[in-house]
Structures are given as structure tokens and as C-alpha cells.
Amino acid sequence: MNNLMSKQVEIYSRALRKSFAHILKNQQHDCLGVLLGSRTADTITVTDAVPLFHDRVFAATLDSAFMMIGQVYSDLQIVGMYDAPLKYKKGDAVPLSSIALNLCE
């Protein structure tokens, strides 16, 4: 099993623009989204992003979001997530947002 640290990551500008736009538009809230693309043994390619939440996440909403992503983006796979926590302070270890913590639970 390959470690993520040994993989090459390629991120398309479309994925960056969509995730940054989501974060900038909702900068008063934690933001969370899905990164879509493909994987090989040594490369993760991120071709698109789907902004998801910037408020509380409920299990039913999360299930619906992932089902819709699977239907709309059936040719891509989820290769990661982005998380922009509101309470990050420069110099601190990067915390997970409350949304990301709920998702992990």
C-alpha cells in the first residue's frame, strides 16, 4: 500500500478556482468540499472540486450530497477533501473545522 507522501499530486486550475471561490464567498464560516479526479499507483490527479458545506452538517444531508456527487460525476472518483477552518491562526497547527470533525465522526 502506497503512502500519500510518496505520491505525486497534480491539481487542475478548475479545482483550485472552485474551492477558492467557495472559501472566499463564505469566509465567515468553515468551508468543506470534495476533490474529484483519478488515482494511479504513484499519482493523484485533482480535476474538479464540489463545494459542499459552510454550516452544520447532518448525516442525511451528507448522504444526499455524496449520492448526488456519485450520480453527477460518475466518471470521476473522490480523491480528497478541502477544509478551510475559520478559527485558524497563523503559526498554530492547522486545526480541522467543526464541519470536518463532524464528517470524520
> What does the largest sheet look like?
4 strands, mixed
Level-1 CATH class name? Alpha Beta
The count of domains is: 1
Structural class: alpha+beta
Number of helices: 3
Q: Regions with pLDDT < 50 over 5+ consecutive residues?
A: none
- CATH names the topology as Cytidine Deaminase, domain 2
**Name of the CATH superfamily:** Cytidine Deaminase, domain 2
Termini Cα gap: 25 Å
Oligomeric description of these chains:
single chain
In spatial order, strands of the major sheet run: 1-3-2-4
Broad shape: globular
The gyration radius over C-alpha positions equals: 14 Å
Helix fraction, binned, reads 25-40%
Listing every helix as H and every strand as E from the N terminus to the C terminus, the arrangement reads: EHEEHEH
**Proportion of residues in β-strands:** 25-35%
Mean pLDDT, nearest integer?
Answer: 83
CATH architecture: 3-Layer(aba) Sandwich
